[in-house]
């Protein structure tokens, strides 16, 4: 099939590679424009952009689409059978949704209608869901409201991190989108019940609220690393928590209960296992505490 692929982050790369390997004619790859990154703030292409160049594919990086009529016309001129979208980052206007002969299909990282929106993988872990999955849906103008073509569940392990779940879902999405294009399954409307939303995350979402229960804080650590990251304040510094585990313990929320970074929460306690100071390398708790003590009785912000 003659396709456009539209995606930007690492999540979308396996699908692009799978479509290319399967022999589909990828007329153009659309992704976010290069952004400043790293200490030198050098303009850096996104992961999909880099993969597309490696595969020898044409890349387009419009900064916006809604009112760019020339971009609408250029997209229509590609003569597409379909467009495959995976975490692209821009909303497709009606003119572009309607341009491919078979429309646009989206690889969404949840079992719709649960966790429509920008951060479904994070949201599933934060909520303590037992399972999530991939839904291949036909796109319409609403936010992840289109009818479903295929879906497959993935169990969420009790200690699942967002990184591991992300990679599993990215690989599953690549396999399912190939099936959807090959099998052309009928589209099934999403049910009206069970709709939830996963909004875009911000850095503020990473602050650890010690009045929450330890299990919820553990899920937050696993769900929000590496980005936006979870953190607390102590000694005038913002300390990142990269790994933790729930343990018994009680005390005023935010109080350090021993000399090995056990912190009281609203219910239970959280053992901090891996931490990082600003501008420093991440460390396991024992060496970290030798250079930056969290003494028994200290109150963490």
Which terms would index this structure?
8 helices; Rossmann fold; alpha/beta; 7-stranded mixed sheet; 2 domains; 16 strands; elongated
Helices and strands, with pairings:
Layout: E1 2-7, H1 13-21, E2 25-30, E3 35-37, E4 42-44, H2 47-54, E5 59-60, H3 69-76, E6 82-86, H4 94-97, E7 104-108, E8 116-117, H5 120-126, E9 131-138, E10 148-155, H6 162-183, E11 197-198, H7 214-224, E12 230-234, E13 237-247, E14 262-264, E15 269-276, E16 283-284, H8 285-291
Parallel strand pairs: 1-2, 1-6, 2-5, 6-7, 8-11
Antiparallel strand pairs: 3-4, 7-9, 9-10, 12-13, 13-15, 14-15, 15-16
Strand ordering within the main sheet: 5-2-1-6-7-9-10
Q: Helices and strands, in N-to-C order?
A: EHEEEHEHEHEEHEEHEHEEEEEH
Give the tally of structural domains.
2
CATH architecture of the largest domain: 3-Layer(aba) Sandwich
The major β-sheet equals:
7 strands, mixed
Q: Which CATH class of the largest domain applies here?
A: Alpha Beta
Can you tell me the residue ranges where pLDDT is under 50 for at least 5 consecutive residues? none
Overall pLDDT score: 97
CATH superfamily of the largest domain: Formyl transferase, N-terminal domain
Walkthrough of the structure:
With 301 residues, the protein is of the alpha/beta class. The chain folds into 2 domains: 2-197, Rossmann fold, CATH 3.40.50; 203-291, Roll (Methionyl-tRNA Fmet Formyltransferase, Chain A, domain 2). Helices cover 25% and strands 26% of the residues. It is built from 8 helices and 16 strands. A 7-stranded mixed beta sheet has the order 5-2-1-6-7-9-10. Strands 12, 13, 14, 15 and 16 form a 5-stranded antiparallel beta sheet that branches. It has a two-stranded antiparallel ribbon with strand order 3-4. A hairpin with a 4-residue loop joins strand 14 and strand 15 (269-276). Helix 5 packs antiparallel against helix 7. The longest helix is centred in the middle third of the chain and has 22 residues, at 162-183. The protein starts with a strand and ends in a 10-residue tail after the last helix. The mean pLDDT is 97.
């Amino acid at each position: 099939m003659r396709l456009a692929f539209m995606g930007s982050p690492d999540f979308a790369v396996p699908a692009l590679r799978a479509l290319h390997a399967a022999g589909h004619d990828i007329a153009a790859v659309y992704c976010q424009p290069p952004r400043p990154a790293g200490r030198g703030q050098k303009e850096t292409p996104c992961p999909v952009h880099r993969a597309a160049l490696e595969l020898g594919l044409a890349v387009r990086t419009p900064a916006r689409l809604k009112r760019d009529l020339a971009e609408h016309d250029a997209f229509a001129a590609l003569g597409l059978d379909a467009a495959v979208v995976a975490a692209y980052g821009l909303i497709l206007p009606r003119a572009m949704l309607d341009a491919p002969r078979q429309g646009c299909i989206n690889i969404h990282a949840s079992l719709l209608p649960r966790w429509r929106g920008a951060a479904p993988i994070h949201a599933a872990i934060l909520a303590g869901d037992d399972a999530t999955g991939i839904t291949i849906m036909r796109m319409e103008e609403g936010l992840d409201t289109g009818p479903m073509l295929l879906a497959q569940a993935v169990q969420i392990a009790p200690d699942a991190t967002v990184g591991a779940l992300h990679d599993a879902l990215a690989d599953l999405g690549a396999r399912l989108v190939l099936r959807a294009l090959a099998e052309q399954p009928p589209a099934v409307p999403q049910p009206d019940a069970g709709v939830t939303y996963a909004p875009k995350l911000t850095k503020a979402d990473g602050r650890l609220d010690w009045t929450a229960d330890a299990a919820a804080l553990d899920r937050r650590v696993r769900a929000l690393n590496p980005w936006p990251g979870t953190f607390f304040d102590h000694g005038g510094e913002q300390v990142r928590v990269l790994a933790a585990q729930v343990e018994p313990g009680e005390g005023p929320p935010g109080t350090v209960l021993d000399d090995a970074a056990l912190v009281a929460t609203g219910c239970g306690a959280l053992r901090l296992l891996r931490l990082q100071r600003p501008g420093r390398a991440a460390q396991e708790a024992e060496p970290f505490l030798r250079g930056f003590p969290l003494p028994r009785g200290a109150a963490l912000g």
